[in-house]
Specification:
The structure is a single chain. The protein is an alpha/beta fold. Helix content is 43%, strand content 15%. A hairpin with a 2-residue loop joins strand 17 and strand 18. It is globular, with a radius of gyration of 28 Å. The termini are far apart. Magnesium ion binds next to helix 3. This is DNA 3'-5' helicase. InterPro entries: DExx_box_DNA_helicase_dom_sf, DNA_helicase_UvrD-like_C, DNA_helicase_UvrD/REP, P-loop_NTPase, UvrD-like_ATP-bd.
């Protein structure tokens, strides 16, 4: 008698069931967004347990984020009816850390090794570099760190880096320093993040007994978001899955259209390699999307069709509800209006009983959260910034605010203490203690103590010069504040104090994002009449910590949203230069652009019921307005799935008042066929200057100079008095 289908399988479609019930042998599930890949993986986990094929501890399940691991653990416990413990379930790094503790001695560590954070990594690398006497201005340690990380992503220990793969960093010293750095880490009984994968893969490669042990433990291997694995992760998986005797019970799920981490070494080719490495692998395709409405799905499919070299997948609507709403595309005047419209729409949704936890605002880059955060705070809608800090809590923003607070109020000791040695000026803890003592003796604030000590000649050497320079920077900014206003003064202060240069010199992957945040801060400053008004606003905004309810709107980057879903998704900032990002456009060619398009596809397919894309006709750059073009991705969405709402540039008389959730907001019209994204007709917009090589520019601090090169938004300028410097394009005036 055939046993009845268990309840947990009965709700799935035949392909999904096949993917779950084919437990033995290699399996690749290749399917588009929202087709139930993650759900299949989770159910497969439960199925293996419930059919007695393995104990929970015999299944290795790799997820891409801790959040995904948590969700999978919860789903497995729900199906099992008891808490799931002792599972090998987590991110690649979490699982490797746990393994490495058991076998640390093979790489010369003990099981209590520490894991370094990024700051410590760089500090250590700098120490290691010292004997080479490398000009760190020319060859910044952060850049070398990046090279080392890429090697680690590719599973290359120093012994495995071939001369052909060596880098020309510091005229060929990269590999030698890499080797020394690794030795130093071991001597300190520490490893960095990349070492977790690297060491463990090396151990599995070199220690047959360890490998055999894991072959005995792991009967089944499950991998989510397989398209974003890098080489070392791939090698690690292959070692664990490929056994001499018996089948490789490895199931990977992925979607080549959602590969968005190539900048971190991910290799979408790993999908193609799978069938070669595991001959006879079963390939299952899932074609029904259960997440999004037919309209959203068709819009996303039309967009991603513009990429070449796809593996090709069919995606059909699987939800039985109606067609749903078209993707809304709203043109707004500027970022204020963008935030206002999104805020208003969220208020209306909340009024209709829509849970806030089912709403997300997804952006291309972290700095874009700021206007939305302020708007949501103002109208009292709780939100969380997922995978990052709230804008005004980010460390570079706090640094800048500290500078501005001192400028506005020199007696603000807390602020002054924060920046007295940022960037590093050689003012150590002892010097600060002495300043405190002096301040008490005066009595007065720290800044007064500094001035006193300078006047009395009590300071010597490096700290004298440093504090002299810092106080002079504040003094100059104070004058500028009176003459040219607070925005110029703020920018000048951050420049003169060396703060901006500190981030420009920083070659870590986070540095460009931090500079973007600072520019966003200066932009926000420009929205206020005075420095004091701005600082007061920030203080109030920082104080309104939203209540601890779980019902909050999620703000996050598109990268962070992978695998997640929400009823309503807002996608702001779809403009050329924002999304696709300027960096991807500067790179030229299709590679970077296609990755941006995949990111757009990920964004649209997060939405269950409603996707709203916004683009602004202009954005403020300090006191100026920068004119922006709608993103090409908007044009690429087939017009029949789109409802256009453009109040910034649609002529109002052509607007047919179609009912919309934005009924009280902008006017609505359906896009005519043959649509090209309209060019905004805004008269009060200063078009962004494109700066040509050879142009003469003026910088308020360095004077006149000639542009000799560009690197994204940064210009390389040869200044008449000051030599070659890298400056943000918006910080210069074009003279000819
Ligand atoms: P992504 O590519 O974005 O990671 P995915 O392929 O992993 O998507 P899931 O998140 O597993 O997709 O599923 C998307 C949604 O569809 C979930 O809400 C899931 O519960 C639902 N779903 C999956 N399969 C079915 C089904 N057979 N019937 C009803 N709903 C389903
Ligand atoms: Mg998924």
């Amino acid at each position: 008698l055939p046993s009845p289908t268990p309840e947990y399988l009965s709700r799935l479609n035949p392909e999904q069931r096949r993917a779950i019930e084919t437990t033995e042998g290699p399996l690749l599930i290749l399917a588009g967004a929202g087709t139930g890949k993650t759900r299949v993986l989770t159910t497969r986990f439960a199925h293996i347990l419930l059919t007695g094929r393995a104990y929970p501890s015999q299944i290795l399940a790799v997820t891409f984020t801790n959040k995904a691991a948590r969700e999978m653990r919860e789903r497995v416990s729900a199906i099992l009816g008891e808490p799931a413990e002792g599972l090998w379930l987590g991110t690649f790094h979490a699982i490797c850390a746990r393994m490495l503790r058991r076998h640390a001695e093979y790489v010369g560590l003990t099981s209590s090794f520490n894991i370094l954070d990024t700051d410590d990594q760089i500090r250590l690398l700098k120490q290691v570099m010292e004997p080479w006497k490398i000009d760190t201005k020319r060859w910044p340690p952060n850049q070398l760190m990046g090279i080392i990380q890429r090697w680690k992503d590719r599973g290359l220990t120093p012994d495995r880096v071939t001369p052909a793969e060596d880098s020309d960093f510091a005229n060929g010293h990269a590999l030698a320093i890499y080797r020394a750095y690794q030795e130093r880490l071991i001597a300190l009984n520490t490893c960095d993040f990349g070492d977790l994968m690297l060491h463990m893969t090396e151990i599995l490669r070199n220690q047959p007994n360890v490998l055999a042990q894991y072959h005995r433990i792991f009967r089944y291997i499950l991998v989510d978001e397989y398209q974003d694995t890098n080489t070392v992760q791939y090698l690690w998986l292959r070692l664990l899955a490929k056994r001499e005797h018996g089948p490789s019970n490895i199931a990977c799920v992925g979607d080549d259209d959602q590969s968005i981490y190539s900048w971190r070494g991910a290799e979408v080719e790993n999908i193609l390699r799978f069938e070669k490495d595991f001959p006879g692998a079963e390939v299952v395709r899932l074609e029904r999307n259960y997440r999004s409405t037919a309209q959203i799905l068709a819009a996303a499919a039309g967009l991603i069709a513009h990429n070449e070299g796809r593996l090709g997948k069919t995606l059909r609507p699987g939800r039985d509800d109606a067609q749903g709403e078209k993707v809304q595309i709203i043109g707004v005047r500027d970022s204020d209006e963008e935030a206002r419209i999104v805020g208003g729409a969220i208020e209306r949704l909340r009024g209709d009983g829509h849970p806030l936890s089912e709403i997300a605002i997804l952006m291309r880059a972290g700095f874009q959260t700021r206007p939305f955060e302020e708007r949501l705070m103002m109208i009292g809608i709780p939100y969380r910034v997922v995978g990052g800090l709230r804008f005004y809590e980010r460390s570079e923003i706090r640094d800048c605010l500290a500078y501005l607070r001192v400028l506005s109020q020199p007696a603000d000791d807390l602020a002054f203490e924060r920046i007295i040695n940022v960037p590093k000026r050689g003012v150590g803890a002892v010097a600060v203690q002495k300043l405190h003592a002096q301040a008490r003796a005066l009595p007065g604030p720290l800044t007064a103590a500094v001035i006193w000590q300078l006047q009395e000649g009590l300071l010597k050497g490096k700290s004298k010069d440093a504090l002299d320079g810092l106080m002079a920077a504040f003094q100059r900014a104070k004058v500028t504040l009176e003459t040219e206003g607070h925005v110029v003064a703020a920018e000048q202060l951050l420049e003169d104090s060396g703060y901006l240069q500190m981030w420009r010199d920083d070659r870590s992957v986070e540095a460009p994002g931090r500079l973007d945040n600072i520019r966003e801060l200066l932009r926000a400053l420009g929205e206020f009449g005075t420095l004091q008004g701005f600082l007061e606003h920030v203080a109030l905004v920082m104080d309104t910590e939203s209540e601890t309810s779980d019902d909050k709107v999620s703000l996050m980057t598109l990268h962070g949203a992978k695998g997640l879903e929400f009823d309503t998704v807002f996608l702001p900032g779809w403009e050329e230069g924002v999304f696709p990002s300027q960096r991807s456009l500067d790179e030229g060619g299709n590679r970077a652009l296609e990755e941006e398009r995949r990111l757009a596809y990920v964004g649209l397919t997060r939405a269950r019921r409603r996707a709203i894309v916004l683009h602004a006709a202009s954005r403020r750059i300090y006191a100026n307005w920068q004119f922006s073009m709608p993103s090409r991705f908007i044009e690429e969405i087939p017009s029949e799935y789109v409802q256009l709402t453009g109040q910034a540039f649609e002529t109002r008389r052509q607007a047919a008042a179609a009912p919309s959730m934005f009924a009280s907001g902008p006017l609505t019209s359906t896009r005519p066929s043959g649509f090209r994204a309209p060019r905004p007709k805004i008269h009060d917009v200063k078009p962004e200057p494109t700066v040509a090589i050879g142009a003469t520019v003026f910088h308020h601090r360095f004077g006149e100079g000639t542009v000799i090169g560009a690197d994204g938004p940064q210009l390389h300028i040869n200044f008449e008095n000051g030599g070659v410097k890298r400056v943000m394009a918006n910080f210069v005036e074009i003279r000819s």
